[in-house]
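task queued by scheduler; priority normal; single chain, no ligands, no partner chains; default sampling; output format set to structure tokens
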Amino acid sequence: MTTQKMLSVMRKGITEYKMIKDGDKIAVGVSGGKDSVTLLKLLAEYRRP
């Protein structure tokens, strides 16, 4: 799955379930595994305007 596709799916979930609102602060625990590093990268892309 490409980064753009994962980002699209993540955006849809965040919007549909109202998971993140303006002004929210998000902490991500990074273990160094593929899943946590991917989540961190996707959230960094998500916050870009």
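post-processing summary
- The mean pLDDT is 94.
- The CA atoms of residues 3 and 43 lie 11 Å apart.
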